[in-house]
Amino acid sequence: xxxxxxxxxxxxxxxxxxxxxxxxxxxxxxxxxxxxxxxxxxxxxxxxxxxxxxxxxxxxxxxxxxxxxxxxxxxxxxxxxxxxxxxxxxxxxxxxxxxxxxxxxxxxxxxxxxxxxxxxxxxxxxxxxxxxxxxxxxxxxxxxxxxxxx
Length: 150
What we know:
The protein is mostly beta strands. It has one domain (6-142): CATH 2.40.50.140. 7% of the residues lie in helices and 44% in strands. It has one helix spanning 59-68, and strands at residues 6-12, 17-20, 26-39, 46-58, 74-87, 93-106. Strands 1-3-4-6-5 form a 5-stranded mixed β-barrel. The two termini are 29 Å apart. Mean pLDDT is 84; it is low at 124-137.
């Protein structure tokens, strides 16, 4: 897939936080640690590098993630990068790059999972098939203008 698309495999650094914006849409946020490990050819020692990402899930995905995942769970996340900008109460400008998740699933390399299909909610649910209606887009930037970022 061309363009802005990422796939990550890592461990949750904290339990997902589920919130609801004023329109009633669910949003879940969690941290993901992605580890890279390699053997240094010169010292023959193992070295490790960790990258941290903030993951944002919307609507049914948000609710399912918050019900199913906990800190430490190894997951696969696919989605796109999204940059948000805001101004603090002190007038400082801030920017943050997050992963806006399309799909989140448990990694079954070192674990098992019990999959339970949820009932489809009214409005298409945004994950049916090729002919399923697309979900409504989140508000610009994903947040109400008066809302503080996570």
